[in-house]
């Protein structure tokens, strides 16, 4: 080939190619030929080990119209009657060049009635009168379908066409549909089915049959691909049933839904329907006929939006029920004894889980997320769900303590408090005791009233609210929230709460669920949680333990654990310590906690990405490597955020030598209100840790009165010559009266030994002075500096080389 540049293009490749066999030389020499490969199957790129992959999307509206006008003729732009029809036909092509060229060429010079007929057929995914579409457009996509590796993958692809055009949907919906339809015969768990569906979706994306959504774990289907899926499904079902399509999957919405509800003839012969989706487009409450489910004994999946539920007793085989904004008459759900999945979405007015839910003993997944008004769960309901694998109650029921406030135990405490509150002489303490008694009396009274009010059904509650003014005080419904506001100020509450018999009651029902692998819940901070087996099998979780407000974590990815107000010095050898191994985001607020994290988990929470500690006043070291335990391979391998606020006894963050590879991904470090902290960590002369903090871009240290340096170097001959901060852009040092520099030596003669060490931009030299060479702040954009350390700022400003740096002092 000499000096000529050669580009070889292989278009529409479907199988792995041996390039040598077809005469294409392979070489690392950049002067050799370059290869461009196109394929609908992205697995081909993995097998061929391509260097760069990129997705070819559809044409823009402008380019699509230009191509369409070229193949269909300029008349589509000039003819005012034809143009709007042509634009709609073009929209059905979804920007695909092959579809635009085929459809445009087939309709060139045709009459307006033929254009309208083509539009109708394209919308119905049956373009039999548009020459070339089925062979050239549908044929290519159908070939991708035929090449799918399993029947389950094909079934999931066809199932995706139930979703409306041009819309995105969460993979979780596909999971619930597939489980309800029984598409996976050899998978017997919700988590196993989810993993399989995610795998299938990735396969469909690799084959260009599905596209990524704008959010993680969402997907969408190209309009033309969806049309092909409908076409394939219709063709396959027609082969099974000679002249009549078997209507297994049905979706109704908008005007079509209204017509379908009004006409019994349109609803005739629904005996083969297995999936039914009823979604109004105008968000007006649906009035479903009482007989709507007659003849649907084989229905397995039902999704209803914005409706009052009719009787469901005929749906003996229903496996999945998804309710969107359906909050009334949910008692009828108890008729579905075979139900496996119950999902409430945007049902924020659901107030009670009624007694009828005790019949749902086959339930495997219950999602109550966002049911913010759910205040009552009938006794025995949760314990009846003995086969439950996944329970979602985030931003939902939190009033686990209400029944205990109304118990005889609380009444007896009040009696004892009244005795204690009557000292011989009046004092401030007696007045406080009287206030304490009054608060407990109020909560006891409200709890008793609330428990008495739960005997009504959800339908009766709704009717009562409509027909008459509420007789209950407003605070009755918000008793749990009201209690949470006061609880931290209640004297000796931890002692009283832990002395309650939590082995009986509503919370004990939750703790009895031994098959849970997924749990999202807010719980009170009581001792029984430390010994509970509730957490032993959890793989996915979002758990908050505490009285104070938890943050909104709707978009949180990964496992989250928050432990506040739990009166314990250790979490070691508990169910909670098992969760630490799998936690991605951890928040601790435990004033009596003494155990460093490497005691709770020998691998130092290897999956932890974010760690926040608040008011852990008994903790001396976050990590103590001097303890006689198994040494972890690394500490906080994937941690990117560390915040510690208010730990009065904390002497050092990392005590002892850190292993190699520790803190490689740490990006933000925030420390404040740590009066005993002298250094963040000490680096020994034999430490394998090389001082590499290349990912850190923000350090904020405030109000640490004893802090002398960030690093302390121990030993006479130290291998660490510099601490690397290659990405540091923001440094805050505020309220540090004892601070002397980034590092200090704990051995005499150390300063002399380091005087000859070289300085590099973007690294902090191991020297006694913070600003001895301002080149170290080359990447800094903001420097906040308020301490007693004497610095000649005029000299600093004169020497600084980063002209984008802003200094605040």
Describe it:
The protein has 809 residues and is an alpha/beta fold. Helices cover 30% and strands 17% of the residues. It is built from 26 helices and 32 strands. The protein has an 18-stranded parallel beta sheet. Strand 6, helix 12 and strand 7 form a beta-alpha-beta unit. Helix 2 runs parallel beside helix 5, helix 8 crosses helix 10 and helix 9 crosses helix 10. The radius of gyration is 34 Å and the shape is globular. It starts with 6 loop residues before the first strand and ends with a strand.
Overall shape: it is: globular
Low-confidence stretches: 241-246, 456-472, 747-777, 789-801
**Helix share bin:** 25-40%
What's the total number of strands? 32
pLDDT averaged over residues? 78
Sheet with the most strands? Answer: 18 strands, parallel
Roughly how many Å apart are the termini? 65 Å
Structural class by helix and strand composition: alpha/beta
**Beta-strand proportion:** 15-25%
Report the C-alpha radius of gyration, rounded.
34 Å
- Put simply, the count of helices is 26
């Amino acid at each position: 080939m000499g000096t000529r540049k050669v580009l070889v293009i292989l278009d529409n490749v479907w199988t792995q190619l041996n390039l040598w066999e077809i005469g294409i030389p392979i070489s690392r020499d950049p002067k050799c030929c370059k290869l461009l490969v196109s394929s609908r199957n992205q697995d081909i790129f993995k097998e061929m080990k391509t260097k760069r992959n990129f997705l070819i999307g559809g044409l823009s509206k402008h380019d699509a119209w230009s191509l369409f006008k070229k193949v269909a003729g300029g008349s589509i732009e000039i003819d005012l009657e034809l143009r709007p029809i042509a634009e709609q036909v073009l929209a059905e092509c979804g920007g695909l060049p092959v579809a635009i060229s085929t459809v445009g060429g087939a309709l060139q010079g045709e009459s307006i009635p033929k254009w309208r007929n083509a539009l109708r057929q394209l919308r119905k995914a049956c373009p039999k009168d548009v020459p070339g579409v089925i062979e050239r457009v549908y044929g290519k996509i159908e070939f991708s379908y035929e090449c799918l590796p399993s029947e389950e993958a094909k079934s999931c692809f066809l199932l995706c066409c139930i979703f409306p055009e041009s819309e995105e949907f969460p993979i979780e919906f596909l999971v619930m549909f597939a489980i309800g339809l029984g598409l996976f015969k050899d998978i017997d768990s919700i988590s196993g089915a989810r993993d399989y569906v995610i795998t299938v979706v990735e396969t469909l994306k690799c084959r260009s049959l599905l596209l990524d959504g704008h959010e993680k774990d969402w997907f969408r289907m190209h309009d033309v691909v969806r049309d092909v899926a409908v076409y394939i499904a219709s063709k396959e079902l027609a082969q099974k049933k000679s002249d009549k399509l078997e209507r297994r999957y049905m979706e109704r919405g908008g005007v079509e839904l209204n017509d379908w509800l009004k006409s019994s003839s349109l609803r005739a012969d629904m005996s083969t329907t297995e999936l039914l989706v009823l979604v109004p487009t105008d968000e007006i409450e649906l009035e479903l006929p009482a007989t709507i489910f007659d003849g649907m004994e084989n229905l397995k999946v039902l999704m209803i939006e914005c409706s009052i539920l009719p009787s469901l007793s005929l749906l003996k085989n229903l496996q999945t029920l998804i309710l969107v904004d359906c909050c009334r008459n949910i008692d009828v759900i108890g008729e579905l004894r075979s139900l496996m999945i119950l999902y409430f979405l945007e049902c924020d007015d659901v107030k009670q889980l009624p007694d009828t839910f005790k019949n749902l003993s086959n339930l495997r997944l219950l999602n109550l997320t966002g049911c913010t008004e759910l205040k009552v769960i009938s006794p025995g309901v949760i314990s009846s769900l003995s086969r439950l694998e996944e329970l979602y109650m985030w931003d939902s029921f939190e009033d686990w303590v209400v029944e205990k406030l109304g118990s005889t135990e609380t009444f007896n405490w009040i009696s004892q408090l009244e005795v204690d509150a009557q000292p011989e002489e009046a004092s401030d303490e007696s007045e406080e005791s009287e206030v304490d008694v009054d608060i407990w009396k109020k909560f006891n009274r409200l709890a008793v009233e609330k428990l008495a009010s739960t005997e009504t059904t959800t339908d009766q509650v709704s009717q009562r609210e409509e027909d008459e003014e509420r007789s209950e005080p407003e605070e009755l419904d918000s008793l749990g929230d009201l209690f949470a506001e006061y609880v931290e100020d209640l004297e000796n509450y931890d002692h009283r709460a832990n002395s309650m018999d939590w082995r009986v009651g509503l919370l004990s029902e939750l703790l009895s669920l031994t098959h849970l692998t997924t749990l999202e819940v807010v719980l009170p901070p009581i001792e029984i949680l430390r010994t509970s087996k509730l957490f032993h099998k959890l793989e996915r979780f979002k758990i908050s333990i505490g009285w104070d407000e938890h943050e909104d974590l709707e978009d949180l990815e990964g496992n989250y654990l928050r432990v506040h107000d739990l009166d314990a010095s250790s979490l070691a050898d508990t169910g909670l310590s098992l969760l630490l191994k799998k936690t991605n985001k951890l928040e601790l607020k435990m004033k009596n906690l003494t155990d460093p994290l490497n005691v709770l988990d020998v691998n130092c929470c290897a999956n932890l990405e974010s760690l926040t500690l608040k008011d852990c006043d008994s903790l001396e070291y976050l990590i103590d490597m001097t303890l006689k335990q198994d040494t972890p391979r690394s500490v906080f391998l994937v941690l990117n955020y560390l915040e510690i606020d208010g730990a009065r006894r904390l002497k050092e963050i990392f005590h002892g030598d850190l292993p190699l590879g520790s803190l490689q991904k740490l990006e933000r470090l925030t420390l404040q209100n740590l009066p005993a902290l002298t250094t963040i960590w000490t680096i020994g002369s034999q430490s394998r840790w090389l001082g590499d903090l290349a990912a850190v871009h923000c350090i904020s240290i405030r109000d640490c009165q004893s802090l002398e340096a960030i690093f302390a170097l121990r030993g006479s001959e130290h291998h660490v010559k510099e601490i690397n901060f290659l990405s540091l852009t923001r440094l805050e040092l505020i309220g540090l009266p004892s601070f002397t520099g980034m590092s200090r030596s704990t051995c005499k003669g150390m300063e002399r030994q380091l005087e000859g060490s070289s300085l590099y931009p973007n690294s902090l030299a191991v020297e006694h002075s913070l600003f001895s060479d301002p080149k170290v702040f080359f990447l800094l954009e903001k420097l906040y500096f308020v301490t007693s350390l004497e610095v000649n700022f005029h000299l600093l400003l004169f020497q600084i080389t980063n002209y984008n740096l802003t200094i605040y002092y």
